[in-house]
Design brief:
This protein is mostly helical. It has nine helices and no strands. The longest helix has about 55 residues. It starts with 6 loop residues before the first helix and ends with a helix. It comes from Branchiostoma lanceolatum (Common lancelet). This is Hypp3264 protein. Keywords: Membrane, Transmembrane, Transmembrane helix.
Length: about 290
């Protein structure tokens, strides 16, 4: 059959296909470069804005009224002045930021660098998926809901190192690691081209349930339900509870819609997740038991 086609026609078809694939590759490259630039710019705006919101707005509302600093007469005798080199020694005068050169400072800087890189990679990926028109909005809503818990985790660890206060270290570490794992699962389902799995959705729901139970056992009941907490404690606990509850509802809603789309009976779903349900119950019970002792 190929011998019946004139050589010129074959050559024209080959050139047409080559042109098509070259143009497609060029469009893909342009889209990738655009997404990369947009992700970079969005990351800068996001990281700058969240700092302003937390330090410039939230802390102003949460914290009590502070005495204004007298910049002309204040000094700092606990500052080692190492990072100033030969320019300043002894008792330091006013600075917007003081830091001593210690192992804790190194850990705080390292922690901040890791947080910034992870935030950049996450926001870049979200922007790239959005520009391709493949974003799953339910997962995007979950990512937005978890911004405050992640930022709070970074700030807590920063404060633990800064104050040499480690009583709540392992407690916070548990919440942070499980939150990161849950967020990673949500990111893996952000692309509409990737079908969510019952196991991933169930895991997200289980982690949010763990946080709700652990938070209630920890401070939520005392601060919010019984009204013993201060304003910043009540608002903080409500914010955490709201994001975890939202995660729980959305994960179960997505699981229900998945079953409806795939015509999976509820009984079959429960059977397929039987091992996961048992494992989740054991882990949640064990973690709650551990939290009661730390």
């Amino acid at each position: 059959m190929a011998s019946d086609i004139p050589p010129q026609v074959l050559q024209d078809d080959i050139e047409t296909m080559q042109t098509f694939w070259a143009e497609r590759k060029q469009r893909t490259s342009r889209l990738y470069q655009t997404a990369k630039l947009a992700g970079f710019l969005f990351s800068i705006v996001f990281l700058t804005l969240i700092q302003f919101l937390y330090f410039g707005v939230i802390l102003k509302i949460w914290g009590p009224e502070k005495t204004a600093v007298d910049r002309d007469s204040c000094t700092c005798t606990c500052w080692d002045t190492v990072f100033k080199g030969t320019y300043e020694m002894g008792v330091g005068r006013y600075k917007h930021v003081y830091f001593n050169v210690t192992a804790q400072t190194f850990k705080m800087c390292g922690l901040t660098v890791v947080a910034i890189i992870m935030t950049y990679e996450c926001t870049s990926y979200v922007v790239r998926i959005a520009l391709c028109g493949r974003i799953r909005y339910s997962m995007l809503a979950l990512l937005v809901a978890v911004i405050h818990p992640h930022y709070y985790s970074w700030w807590m660890f920063f404060g633990y190192y800064n104050d040499d206060f480690y009583v709540q270290w392992y407690h916070q570490l548990l919440f942070t690691l499980t939150e990161l794992f849950s967020t990673a699962l949500v990111l893996s389902m952000l692309d509409r081209g990737v079908k969510p799995t019952p196991r991933k959705l169930f895991t997200v729901a289980s982690i949010s349930l763990l946080h709700i139970l652990a938070g209630g056992m920890d401070q939520f009941v005392s601060n919010v339900v019984l009204g013993r907490g201060m304003f910043h404690q009540v608002s903080r606990d409500i914010a955490f509870f709201s994001s975890d509850f939202f995660y729980l509802i959305v994960a179960w809603a997505e699981l229900a819609m998945l079953c409806a789309r795939e015509n999976i009976p509820a009984s079959l779903l429960l059977m397929s997740l039987k091992r996961d349900i048992i494992t989740s119950a054991v882990i949640i019970s064990g973690v709650l038991l551990i939290l009661s002792y730390i």
